[in-house]
Structures are given as structure tokens and as C-alpha cells.
Amino acid sequence: MHTRFGDFEPLCHTTPSYPWCNLFWRQVNDTDPSVFTSNSFNAATAGVGVNPDCAIPFVGTDGSLANIANIIACALSIAFTIYLVWGVIRRRAAVGRLEFCILLILYLFTLPLQLITTGSFLHQGSTALVVLTAIHAGLVAATFWALLGNGILSTQIVEDGTLSSLIPFSFFIVAFFAATTYIALDVGLGFTTVFGPSNPLVNLNSIPLFVLTSVWPGAAALLYLVFMIYIILGVLNEVRPIWYYILAGVLFVLSQLDYFLLSKGTAQKIDGSFVATILETAAVGVLYLGWRSITEESWDDEIYYPR
Predict the structure, then answer these.
(1) pTM of the model
(2) Which percentage of the chain shows pLDDT scores above 70?
(3) Which residues are listed as membrane-spanning (predicted)?
(4) Residue 205 backbone dihedrals phi, psi, to 5 degrees
(5) Which residues, given as ranges, of the chain have pLDDT below 70?
(6) How many angstroms separate the CA atoms of 288 and 292, rounded?
(7) Which residues, including other chains, have CB under 8 Å from residue 19's CB and lie 6 or more apart?
């Protein structure tokens, strides 16, 4: 089969816990499930996605605990990200504090949705799973705009924390969220023919969804890294903080490689998605350390009491 740009089939076939594959299950099942040969179209037992090589079965099927490893990883990541948000909030005078806090909050919101959309405890094809997966996709696209927006604002093209900063920053968050969620809902529920169904069906093709969920995050992360290298080396004339951002980039790349290359199931009980979640959260934690290292002179940790 010839693979075209925008085809999800190669990812959905080999990556058991790739959440965007949930959006194609109903489309294929309602049109022609015979295009695939697996039994993944039994809604009572189907795991995440469409026709994966080794999906984790629906919770309770043959004693399945659902995607328990990733559920635990997401829960721990939620607690860790809340701690990071608290750490940003308490740095009242730090540059870019509000915008960076928004980035962390958006990432925090993606975690419970990731837990649900890859957890194998909502029936495939259900409206609830499709809607939650679409919202998850929208939040991921918005989160990566917030990441890039933080990089742009670090140039101080406008003053951070002001209306001139927050209005465009928030506008694009809403725009990316709304556009991606709408496209994902259309792919998953098929209420129009603008973004679906896939043609041919077996390719699971959606170029807009592929761009916003697979291409855009990588592009935004790369552009953010370029901005931060420029700021740290060209403006601040420092070297040490750059290693935080390089390390965060490496962790992000490893998390994606884990999803796409290493995420094979183990006896249909766990897959590599929990490692990807841990690596993504570690990347966020390192970004926090990088942000702290270049804003520490602005921190207002000590209160001076005149004698």
C-alpha cells in the first residue's frame, strides 16, 4: 500500500497507544471494517486505536488491567506538573511567569485526557471517547503554541505579563484549540464531509489532523529551541542555561521515538507509552529548570525589612 502525507495507518498499525487513532475507529467500523483483517472492531474488547499489532485489550477482558502502566505514569506526571505550577506561581517577579504558567497548566490538562484516551477503559467508537480524544488533540496543539509563544515573548518584542502580550498569546491558544478540536471531531464523528472520511479508507488519511497533531508539535518545539538559543547565547551571553533546553529537546525526541519505534505491547498488558509519558514530563521539568536559570535574578524570594 502506498503511504501518502497525512496517512495515519502506519502509525495506527504499529503504535498501540497513539490516541489520535481513536478518531478513525468509528469511521472505519461504520463504512467497511473488512478493510482490516484484525478483530479490533469488536467494541466490547477493542483496545486503543485501529488495527494495532498488539493493542492492550479493553479493561476486564481476559483480566486486562487496561493500560495500567501509562495510567500510573500520567497520575504521577499530574502531581509533578502541579508542583511545577506552584513553583512558577511563587516566583512573583520572574520574567515570563504568567505565560510559562499557562504553558504548564495546558500541559497539565493534557495528562488526564491522555490517561483516558489511551487507557483502554472507554469503549472504542463511543461518542465519549471520540469527543475526549478530540479535546485532547486540541489541547496538545494549543500547548505547543504556548511553548512557541513563550519563545517568541522571551525576545521581549512586547512586555511579558501585559495585555499586549497576553491578548495575542491567548488568542492563538484558543484558535489552535478550537480548530484542532473541530477537525478531530469531524474526523471522528463525520458530521460533515470536509475533513472525512478518509479516501481510500484503509489509509486513515487526514492531512489537517496529521499536520496539527504530528507535524505542528515537532515544528513548534524546534522553533522554540531556536528562539531560546538566540536569547541565551545572543542576548544574555551565557552558555550554561542552554544545556537545559538541549536536554529538554533530547527528552522530547526520545519520547516521540518511544511512541513510534519502541511502543510494542508486552503480552498485551503494557506498552511503551508509559515511558513516553515519563520522558515528556521530564522534558517539561527540565524546561522549568531552564526558565528558572535565566530568570533567577528577577526572583523575589526574599523580603527586605528595613531596620
Answers:
(1) 0.91
(2) 90
(3) 68-89, 101-122, 128-148, 169-195, 215-236, 243-262, 274-291
(4) -95, 130
(5) 1, 37-40, 52-54, 196, 262-270, 296-307
(6) 6
(7) 48, 49, 114, 117, 118, 133, 136, 137
